[in-house]
Amino acid sequence: MRFIDLSVAISPRIREPLPAKIEYASHEDGARQAAAVLGLQPDDFPEGKAWATETVTLNTHAGTHIDAPWHYWPTSEGKPARTIDEMPLEWFYGDGVLLDFSAKPPGYEITTEDLKAELARIGYTLKPFDIVLVRSDADKRLFHEHYAFLHAGVSAAATEWLLDQGIKVVGTDGWGWDIPLNLQAEAYRKAPREGVLWAAHYVGKDREYCQIEKLANLDQIPKPFGFKVCCFPIKVEKGSAGWSRPVAIVED
Predict the structure, then answer these.
(1) What's phi and psi for 119, nearest 5 deg?
(2) What pLDDT sits at residue 252?
(3) For the whole prediction, is pTM greater than 0.85?
């Protein structure tokens, strides 16, 4: 059995609009902190060393994370949209399906026809609760200045089609599920209209689903189906998203 890490590290080096900030406290810092709390001296600890810790300032949409319906809109399917701590855990463990669009250029919008063609190529029919992973290899450009703009995105119609097949969780190795935001803005400025800005996300107004963003290492999954995905989200109270460390589990 193989476990393949599908997450990116929490790192301030990733070039994204919502960067992480990490303050590292050394073992010596820990001794000073512990001494202050316990009424001791730092030298009371062996070699003046105690715990090392980190203070992390992190948006819930930084790093590999799972969007909850609340992220898309206040309501979903006519009811108050659920937050990440309210989502059923059963959604986040299941059969994985890998759709390879790594040959598509950054900014390409994946259509329903593209999905059907790729499923036909790999010889697979989707079933309810499959976890569908879209590969564009954007994770190979994590530290590029324009990382957030270098992925292929999924159209609103294609997203709806996946949900029609009973899919509840989808994922991408791109910065976002839609095409890059700069292309959305450019298209809207040219012809302001509905259905351009954040179109795939807004599918969540009417259809409840979750999406994993900023996956990694999808190229290391050795087959397009026949593996499990485990991607439980961190339980952020009333959160629009929760961080996750998704794993592909492949039987030998």
Answers:
(1) -65, -40
(2) 84
(3) yes
What residues does each domain of the chain span? 5-9+60-250, 21-57
First to last CA, the chain: 5
Kindly list the distances between the CA atom of residue 232 and the CA atoms of 6, 226, 236, in Å, as whole numbers in the listed order. Answer: 12, 20, 12
DSSP symbol at 3: E
pLDDT digit string (tens) for 56-101? 999 999 999 999 999 999 999 999 999 999 999 999 999 999 999 9
The residue count for the chain: 252
The listed CATH number (3.30.470.20, 3.50.30.50, 3.40.710.10, 3.60.20.10) that belongs to domain 5-9+60-250:
3.50.30.50
Helix axes 112-122, 156-164, angle to 10 degrees: 50
* Structure token digits, residue 112: 């329903």
CB neighbour list of residue 195: distance below 8 Å, 6 or more residues apart: 156
Give the CA distances from residue 68 to residues 39, 87, 184, 205, 240, in Å, rounded to whole numbers and listed in that order: 44, 8, 22, 11, 5
List of the chain residues with pLDDT < 70? none
